[in-house]
Amino acid sequence: MSQQAPAPSARQTELLEAAYRYALAHGLTDLSLRPLAEAIGSSPRVLLFLFESKDGLLRALLARARADELALLDRAGRPEGPTGLGPAVERVWTWLAAEEHRPLLRLWAEAYTRSLVQPEGPWAGFARATVEDWLGVLAGFQPPSERDSAAGATRRTLALAVLRGALLDLLATDDERRLTGAVAHQLALLHDDHAAGGRGDGE
């Protein structure tokens, strides 16, 4: 039987949250322990003791960012009333496009890119894991009959490609109006394709 990792101490949790806020403001690519420790009221020695290594701290920060992103995406897409993939994607995009979420999304984009070009070390698997996370969130908005079908998997894969592509464009250009129009256009096509498929299936 595998042993569970020990629960983090209160001090470790406190410093992780402070380091996460620092990472949202400054990014992770050039993260240096000394200025980080000074900014959050700690020391490099304490951070290395609590997180075992700089890579260990980076992994903890990436896990923290991933959990934050996943929880927010899931909450953003869930209304009080009935839902479906199209309306949920529209709500998720509204959340993604909000300017106050740019720090988290820039951090996500940075980690996603580093995971592709540096597949070893603390970044390992981050990009693949976030793809699976997003697909899982989108699947949760589909009715079971659609979610469990090949066509349903294709629709949420297309929705993810649209959201991710529009998000990267938004982070590069800040052209929210153009991209919101493009997302709305693609959602209309997605809806039309789904309606045609439903008629073809006798739904």
UniProtKB/TrEMBL annotation:
InterPro entries: Homeodomain-like_sf, HTH_TetR. Keywords: DNA-binding. It comes from the Bacteria. Residues 32-51 bind DNA. It comes from Streptomyces zhihengii. Pfam families: TetR_N. SUPFAM superfamilies: Homeodomain-like. This is TetR/AcrR family transcriptional regulator. Residues 9-69 form the HTH tetR-type domain.
